[in-house]
Amino acid sequence: MILNELWSLRSEALRASAGDWARPILDLLFPPRCFGCSTRGAWLCADCVPQLPHVEHPICQICGYPTAGTKVCAFCYKTRPKIHGIRAPYYFEGALRDAIHRFKYKHAKYLAEPLAHLLLNYLQASPIDADIVVPVPLHQTRLAERGYNQSELLAIELGKALNLPVVARCVDRIRPTDSQMSLPAQRRIANVRGAFYSVDKTIAGKKVLLIDDVCTTGATLESCTVALQRVGVSSIWGLCIARARFYLR
Length: 249
Ligand SMILES: [Zn+2]
Ligand SMILES: [Zn+2]
Description:
By secondary structure, the chain is of the alpha/beta class. The protein has helices at 2-17, 23-29, 74-79, 94-105, 112-125, 140-146, 150-162, 185-192, 219-230; strands spanning 85-87, 90-91, 132-135, 172-173, 196-197, 207-215, 235-243.
């Protein structure tokens, strides 16, 4: 058991530091283990994916949270978000939470592909019309610390699979913000208000698919939307892998 753990830690460290070219070799030497059931062969196996906690319908047409049956939830009815809609098929829990944590904080860039695959599955069943894929940017300080923007890695995988251009530098995060997860609901909107800025006129008229890994209240996506609308994009849909189940807004 302990040896197994050590073996797995060692293989994760190797994977995190290895280049993309080495991934097939590492996958052969250390087959991926499912985050749900630890079976070898995939990061999220075919048995565990259908069991990931997914958001049940009916949902709000705008924010995508479950409703009691109304088309739009009370929050969206009151606040009239500028974003056309947000979809996040799963809740940020269990195996998916573990996978996203490793993807974001443990340099596990190799998880971009299986995680983006979940979004592709979702889009197959519920397509979103888009011309370009735009990742939610990180502030440059955080980007320097982490070395990569996890949302951009997801956007690249989606762009490849959907045959859509990824426009990663069209919106800037002009000031660092605290992690939304760490803040009470009332402070989240203020935390990200005016945090994004865009001057990229080349995306005017485009339908944007805005990608983030996790959303809580949707405040980050909304703030990005305000910046993108200033340069005249025609529509913006937010797509995240997972969302918080419990929240107050
Ligand atoms: Zn599994
Ligand atoms: Zn709503």
